[in-house]
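input
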Amino acid sequence: MTEKDILAKQVVDHMMEHDLFSQWLGITVLDIKEGYSKIQMTVRKEMINGFGVVHGGIAFSLADSAFAFACNNRNNLSVALDTSINFTKAVNVSDTLIAEAKENHNGRSTGLYLITVTNQNNEQVAHFKGTCFRTGKELVSK
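output
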């Protein structure tokens, strides 16, 4: 593990400690590298919407957390400028969802990330794209 990857993990550990929503989702961090994250969660029955299907916000929120962990893990506080999602397959209660965020562009003031959400059968359920703005502020002291 490189020094950059160690710092990336420290930043994400700090974020998870303070991210009550990601904790409520039941997110587990699977892998963190500079500009990259892979996380998972299990869908619970209280995540069903009024139509009796899993709320689209669940896959969006998982992807958004993966986006946040990937774009912030250089210890440069980054906020979302623009996000979008395409849903490709229904999500069901008890599904295990995995979101993998990959950096497409790392600029001085912005970054672009592509996040794929899959289920336990490795079927793609959503594609998320996020653009962030880098504030220049540190999240953790070095």
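quick obs: The chain has one domain: 3-134.
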